[in-house]
Amino acid sequence: MIRRVVYDIEFRVLVKEKLNASDSVLVTGSCDQLGEWLPNRCVPLNRLDKTDDGEIWSTNIKIYGTQKISYRYLIAQIVRIDDDLNLIVKKWETFKVARQLSFNNWTNDSDDGVSSITTPTVDNEPPDEFPAVFGCYKGELRTDIGWLTGQTEIQLRFHSNALQIWSSKFRNSKISLKVSPIDLNYQQDNEETSTDSPSQIFAPTSKVFIQSALLRLSGCEANIQSDYGAIIEKDDYVIVKIQTFEPENVAYHIDFYLVDDITSLRKHIGFAYVLPIHSNLELADNKQLNRIVPIIGLKHNPIGQIKIDVLLITPLDAVQQKFFVTPSKYWRQGRRPVNVGHRGL
């Protein structure tokens, strides 16, 4: 009789970060059952509970015939295209040495020659670290954003006095803008012939990941857009990043709001549309272009225009990156910085 050892392991993690409804927590690792570090073979966890500290995610995975495994957790948006699992990786654990799990004790063989784990131990990790905390391991906090696993990133950049308001009513007012993706396939499939509604509402799409960054001296990290987007002033540089596996099916709806310093509520004054950006011929060799689109008021009259720089970023061809190593983001603590060069903005 062939003896096969099976370890039934629960992977449980506490995620303190704020997650969107479309976000998922996954695990990847060094064995076949954990996907061998490949993005398209990561194992999704299930949301169990929400606490004051964050959300608990867990799943049970059967590990076959190995003494030790390495693994990492990640936060991603799952996009299924033709039943294939595609990931837009938002954040992942980047410890130089991944989490380790060893199996020291198991029960006796059952009749079918299968053993099941009873007390798996985690190397150098005390028992009170169950569940694990996302991004924290052995007292070290280290996470990073993901890379393009197959999706395209479109950057809409607003700068150099990009916003021009013609309407005298709003010309000297402070304006904010928010970009919303439109899934054209969804809109076509669910198109209604009725025109009773005075305005069109676009349903959110789980196939698109969108962030914005306002480049200022006080900070320029990309974050999820707020309800009213970012305030854009004359010398500001605003970047909105959109990631999608289907750039040809995604258009962009830009809403403009009147900013009132007295109240947090903002008045909607107009909108603009940007058609899908996916053609390399359109973007020429440098994959960059400029667009000027009109801003339409609520009474369907033009009230201004906005200039948009567009940059298309595609993943590297024939290069398959894994979650195994993280040397590009690792710098040993206590090591002095090295000035290797500078070429300006």
Automatic annotation (TrEMBL):
UniProt GO MF annotations: glycerophosphocholine phosphodiesterase activity; starch binding
GO BP term (any one): glycerophospholipid catabolic process
SUPFAM superfamilies (alphabetical): Starch-binding domain-like
InterPro entries: C2_GPCPD1, Carb-bd-like_fold, CBM20, GDPD, Ig-like_fold
Gene3D superfamilies linked to this entry: Immunoglobulins
Domain of life: Eukaryota
Domain CBM20: 1-124
PANTHER family attached to this UniProt entry: GLYCEROPHOSPHOCHOLINE PHOSPHODIESTERASE GPCPD1, GLYCEROPHOSPHORYL DIESTER PHOSPHODIESTERASE
Protein name, per record: CBM20 domain-containing protein
Organism of this sequence: Rotaria magnacalcarata
